[in-house]
Amino acid sequence: MAHILGISGSPKDGATEYSVKYALSEAAKVPGITTEFVTLRTLKFNLCTDCCACIKTDKTNCTAFHDDFSVLYERFLKADGYLIGSPVYQMNISALLAAFFNRFRPLWTITKRDPHSLGRKVGGGIAVGGKRNGGEEMALLAIVNFFFTNGIIPVSGGVLAYNGAAIWSQNKGAEGAAADEVGMGTVRTIAQRVALVTLMAKAGEGAYLDGLARLKS
Question: Is 143 helix (H, G, I), strand (E, B) or coil?
Answer without folding.
Answer: helix
